[in-house]
Design brief:
128 residues, mainly alpha, globular
């Protein structure tokens, strides 16, 4: 399994989300129909910082052998994040009127969740 591509793609995705939440919190909250009050903006920026931290972790670990027992904390953290967010977004999409961005976000998180699950629960192949 090519985990370098997985780690690079997830770093790019999380970095984009983290930058957007860090520097455009009011706009994103308004787009999501959430009142952009003081605490909502602060929480969005805190979430953006967490995404940026995860993006940097994935970017720095993109060359590390991932899978089985190798880099298990990195694989497990990513798997749990993407799988839980995918479940939350799918549940939200089923419960409310379907919004294209919600469905697209759920699809992205579902793909990353399955991909990290595959990396986590399979033994990595040798690069040779």
């Amino acid at each position: 399994m090519k985990t370098r591509i997985l780690m690079s793609a997830s770093a790019a995705w999380m970095g984009a989300v983290g930058l957007a939440l860090s520097f455009l919190p009011q706009e994103i909250l308004g787009w999501a129909a959430v009142e952009p009050g003081r605490w909502a903006v602060v929480l969005a920026q805190v979430l953006g910082a967490a995404y940026l931290g995860f993006a940097m972790l994935n970017w720095m670990a993109r060359g590390v052998l991932l899978g089985g027992v190798y880099a298990r904390p990195v694989a497990l953290g990513n798997f749990l994040h993407f799988a839980v967010v995918a479940v939350v977004l799918v549940k939200a999409a089923v419960a409310a009127p379907v919004h294209a961005a919600l469905v697209a976000g759920a699809a992205v998180y579902l793909v990353f969740g399955v991909w990290f699950g595959g990396a986590l629960f399979t033994h990595p192949r040798s690069p040779s």
